[in-house]
Amino acid sequence: MALILEARRALDGRIRRTPLEPSLRLSEIAGVLVSLKLESLQATGSFKLRGAFFAMSRLSEDERARGVVTCSAGNHGKAVAYVARELGLKATIHVPSSVDESKYRGMLALGAEVRRSDFDGFDDTEKVAKAQAAREGRPYLTAFDDEVILAANGGTLAADVLDEAPDARTFLLPVGGAGLAGGFAFYAKTAVPSSRVIGCQHVLSPALALSLERGEAVLTLPPIETTAGGLEGGIGKTGFDALRSRIDGVALLTEEEIFDAVRFVLDAHQYVIEPSSAVTVAAILTGKAGRLTSPAVAVISGRNVALPTLRRILAA
Known about the structure:
By secondary structure, this protein is an alpha/beta fold. Helices cover about 50% and strands about 15% of the residues.
């Protein structure tokens, strides 16, 4: 908890305090009060700014002088590019060839060096990024597999949610590498042991579900064709270690169900959100979250989606 409190102090005044908005229609469907935590309204369009800023603020002067290397499906890279510009340091960001174009352009616009991989998937791309960092002696910033990232991305977000909704007892979280979910579950279960945490994943890349079955973190998975790139790939060991005794359920959603949820949020709330973040809403709409018996919060993790992708979703 000490690291989460340190992260909250470091982020105070440096990031937006995003709104928590009740959803009347989701509440009617679920039979309990459901609110949306709109991290999609964060400065870079996702929760990833929390982890990027906290991790980079802890770099030594020597590390800052060398600049950082990272790998990202998009949102972490955009956050790293934003913070690098703020701190005046170099950032090299490796992205899969399938990266969402709006995220790719966003990183470039912020002044980062962006290297598009020959690989479609995150896991193979990350190997290339780590090799460059080792070869050049530069700090590698993981998108999710580090306690500093968990504390800032998930821990501070959970603290904000419980400040704003102290009666909430069910939390629906998107799960990719688990940098958000692991930190969030740790804080929520420590603060309110009776709370329920539901992880929401793509059915074709269910790293958390597989890890729970096998009893160990599934670190890599084959790439899948999806618009929800933030959910693709293996889970981080740090995040899984935090989740394995704190997760109460896993909802596995199809691409079509995720598209339905993107359209639902636009229709019901007039917000454009990215497919990776819509998975929590999809879990409620499909009933895959299970029966909700207490006030719930669905985390909306990001809004960064390219116009052609959005057109395809809306036309489906």
